[in-house]
Amino acid sequence: MSTSLEKAVRSAGYYPALAWSVLRTAIGTEKVRAHFVHAETTFDDREVRRHMTVLVITESRLLRVHIDDGAGHTAEGGHEASATVETTALGAIRNTAMTHVIHEPEHFTEHDLPHELVLAVGGSVHSRIDLEPATCGDESCEADHGYTGNMTGDDILVRVSLIADGADSIRALQDFAIVLQGAVGTAR
Description:
Blueprint: H1 2-12, H2 16-27, E1 32-43, E2 48-58, E3 61-70, E4 80-89, E5 95-101, E6 116-122, E7 127-133, E8 147-153, E9 156-161, H3 162-165, H4 167-183
Antiparallel strand pairs: 1-2, 2-3, 3-4, 5-6, 6-9, 7-8
């Protein structure tokens, strides 16, 4: 499995030496049970940006490695990239959701691929807290009522489409999700 992961990272062509180095360090001595590599190019008003997400299931963890292009901070305007590794214990994953988007479902057969797949994984390492001043409802009250807010988990989200990413990518995400859904809540 490690060999097929390395091959997938190199085939994606997005800073493969950097990606493989970060992945090897994150995986350590654990066995790779499943992986999914997704390289994307996005366009905005002024520039083209590339990024890659690699999901890896080991014996005890879900790893999410995300690599982004940077603007560069050198005087010569050189490029830079940043690589972030998130690690979630399999036992800490609360849930997964796989959304299958089908165009013209009346023509769908059991052997057809979905047009899009979206995998969401709950239990990632980041959360966001949004705070605002609390009030009592009395518009003339000037007392300090502290703060109120919400804490929102930052789930892992991966979306692939048949048109943009191809059938192999759809199948790869399906295969990865099967292993992940079987491993949720376990600690091997």
